[in-house]
Design a protein that fits this description.
By secondary structure, the protein is an alpha/beta fold. About 45% of the residues lie in helices and about 15% in strands. The chain is built from 6 helices and 5 strands; from the N terminus they run H-E-H-E-H-E-H-E-H-E-H.
């Protein structure tokens, strides 16, 4: 279980309120690892959606009947980069309330600063091993889904 201090019914209620987590990442292997890490933290598959690049992300959001609760966004993707997609999301009045967490291999201070200046809500560097990825997803779930006050669509 990913949280020991919280009542199980409280956690279940909070997780049920989440529409879904949208992950934009062009690397299929990373998508599978992220999915597995969420599953290891008891986030079921119906709470996850994946797109392959920034272009697909924007198209998905523009056509979504229900918006995601959170977006995990890779920085370096083909067709439209994470940075470009982030700018479009944060400039769109319908989408700008969605927390966008940059989730990338880059730990460049320039990338971190630029993404924050554009409006990302957090910037996380992808861990080098699966155990650390599971732990990071646990922390992400604990903060963004259980503690932070976010708008649910």
């Amino acid at each position: 279980m990913f949280i020991v201090d919280k009542d199980a019914s409280y956690i279940s209620k909070k997780i049920r309120a989440v529409s879904y987590i949208l992950v934009a990442d062009d690397d299929v292997d990373d998508q599978e690892l992220i999915q597995d890490a969420f599953l290891d933290n008891e986030i079921v598959l119906d709470k996850l959606r994946f797109v392959d690049d920034g272009e697909e992300l924007i198209h998905f959001l523009e056509n979504a009947k229900i918006l995601p609760s959170i977006i995990l966004l890779d920085l370096n993707m083909p067709r439209k980069s994470g940075r470009e997609a982030l700018a479009e999301i944060k400039q769109n009045p319908t989408l700008k309330h969605i927390p966008v967490i940059m989730f990338t291999t880059s730990d460049s201070e320039v990338d971190i600063k630029e993404c924050h200046m554009i409006g990302c809500n957090a910037y996380l560097t992808k861990p080098n091993n699966y155990i650390d990825l599971v732990s990071l997803m646990k922390d992400l779930i604990s903060f963004w889904l259980l503690q932070a006050k976010i708008l649910y669509d």
